[in-house]
Amino acid sequence: MKMPTPGFGFAVEASVGLARAGTLTTPHGSLPTPTFMPVGTQGSVKTLMPSEVAATGARIVLGNTYHLWLRPGAELIDSIGGLHAFARWPHAMLTDSGGYQAFSLAERRKLTEDGFTFQSHLDGAKKHLSPEEAMRVQGLIGADIAMQLDVCPPGLAPRPEVIAACERTTRWARRCLEARKPGQAVFGIVQGGSHVDLRTAHASELSAMMFDGLALGGYSVGEPVEVMHASLPLVTQSLDRDRPRYLMGVGTPKDLVVGIRSGIDMFDCVLPTRNARNGQALTRTGRIVIKHTRYKEDREVLDPECGCPACAGGFSRAYLRHLFIAKEILVLRLISAHNLHLYGQLVREAREAILRDAADNAQDATQKNSMRAFAAFEARWRVAGASG
Ligand SMILES: [Zn+2]
Fold first, then answer.
1. Catalytic site residues?
2. Model confidence pTM above 0.85
């Protein structure tokens, strides 16, 4: 279907159970879903060239509004042609609203009905992030997709606090849609903490608004991971099925598998790149902490099935360990590329499994809703990096 903003579209091509395979169309190209968005906090996916990010299969990245707004400034980015031109990323791009980081990183922050007031963690400058300012700044940065400003309560906040956060997020949703930049898609953000009933009600409320897509925010903020896994399939069913669904800031390979089974289309997380810089390579069978002595003479690559520059290039675990211990920056690039390739492979395999199951089920009416291929995909991935 066409999304409300011209130039955007989303089509679910196949589904099995709640899982879906689709295509998201943006002014910077179409991309297959489910998809993983590498995070480029400062306008760069740390250590990698844009072409290296694209080689992982990623066709959309995430930029952090809070960081870019404070430095180098949204006006400067706009004057150089927007973040696509500034960062030399030719594919699709999404920015968050800045609210989450304004609240978690800034100093002397205060939350009122008109937004977040805070002091920059860089120079102490006083800033105010209202729904209108969040849309203005994201408009200047110029990503394809902007996110509404929302209120994210802590994971185990008391119910009245979560209700108040949902209500304020809805009021801000209206203000953000009013203040949007023409031509930029906007996603709404469902809150509700670990209360499924609140999430379901908020999802229905935001589904009735003119958002191009809907996101689930406020997960992975302190609550047990099992709580999120249990609530996802219940909450996604209240999200309009014709629009893309985005699970914000989550997570491990296992979280992606559970999310995709629950009907999520888009993910982002700093985990694969952050873990890489800590010397942790993710594989289908778990994590490799490269500095461990056990890899000292290990001639194997990280994962013989992986097509990344580190594995396909034949770089042994022993060499990667040596680089890490010698503090050579090449190892950060190699493991970052490896981890993002793994995520790219995960979402590709999920999509293939959904398409395969849907095609098999269409051919043979007796096995309606069989998830044979998807179950095989899950068996292949569930063990990987479960502890993050
Ligand atoms: Zn690899």
1. 96, 268
2. yes
